[in-house]
């Protein structure tokens, strides 16, 4: 009986490093950044930055859209009326990517590399309709965004 116990203990000790080696896989570290352009609902071309953690090459990752605040704030979180560049949204995106979360941040209409909206009164009237805001709102999960990312050639 002692001999069996000793053999079982020795076998377990020899198997433990092999089991541990299987569990310690190395995943790609770091990020990759892509500049993207896409059309808004009114046809205005918006420019943005897609920041992906490298682990997205081997598995699905969650994603967020970072929207700049009010005023002339660009995709990185800088306001042209403030003399200091703080890059707040860029820093948030980098922190998120560091923990495996993809992010898309974009310049609003007429800011940075995004196109300017039309100045016609008719276009402004259409822009401020309910259908442009809540009427077309549908719920979706992250797979729709991930499919869009794949189809835009960001890999």
Q: Helices and strands in order, then pairings?
A:
Blueprint: H1 2-23, E1 31-39, E2 45-53, E3 63-66, H2 88-98, E4 102-106, H3 121-127, H4 130-135, H5 142-151
Parallel strand pairs: 3-4
Antiparallel strand pairs: 1-2, 2-4
Explain how this protein is built.
Helix content is about 35%, strand content about 15%. α2 links the parallel β3 and β4 (about 100-105). The mean pLDDT is about 75. The chain contains 5 helices and 4 strands, in the order αβββαβααα. With about 160 residues, the chain is of the alpha+beta class. The chain has one domain (about 30-150). The protein has a 4-stranded mixed sheet, with helices on both faces.
Question: What is shown here, in short?
Answer:
The chain is an alpha+beta fold and 155 residues long. The protein is built from five helices and four strands.
Please give a handful of descriptors for the protein shown.
155 residues, alpha+beta, four-stranded mixed sheet, 5 helices
Tally of helical runs: 5
Q: Give the termini separation.
A: 59 Å
List the secondary-structure elements in sequence, H or E. Answer: HEEEHEHHH
Outline? elongated
The share of residues in extended strands comes to 15-25%
Quote the average pLDDT.
76
Count of discrete domains = 1
What's the main sheet like? Answer: 4 strands, mixed
Helical content class: 25-40%
Instruction: Please identify the structural class as seen in this structure.
Output: alpha+beta
């Amino acid at each position: 009986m002692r001999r069996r116990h000793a053999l079982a203990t020795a076998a377990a000790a020899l198997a433990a490093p092999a089991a541990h080696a299987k569990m310690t896989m190395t995943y790609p570290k770091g990020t990759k950044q892509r500049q993207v352009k896409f059309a808004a609902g009114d046809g205005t071309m918006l420019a943005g930055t897609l920041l992906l953690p490298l682990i997205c090459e081997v598995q699905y990752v969650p994603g967020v859209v970072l929207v700049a605040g009010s005023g002339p704030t660009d995709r990185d979180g800088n306001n042209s009326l403030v003399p200091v560049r703080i890059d707040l949204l860029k820093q948030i995106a980098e922190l998120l990517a560091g923990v495996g979360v993809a992010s898309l941040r974009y310049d609003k209409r007429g800011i940075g590399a995004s196109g300017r909206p039309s100045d016609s009164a008719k276009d402004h009237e259409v822009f401020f309709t309910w259908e442009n805001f809540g009427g077309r709102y549908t719920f979706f999960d992250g797979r729709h965004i991930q499919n869009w990312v794949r189809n835009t050639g960001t890999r």
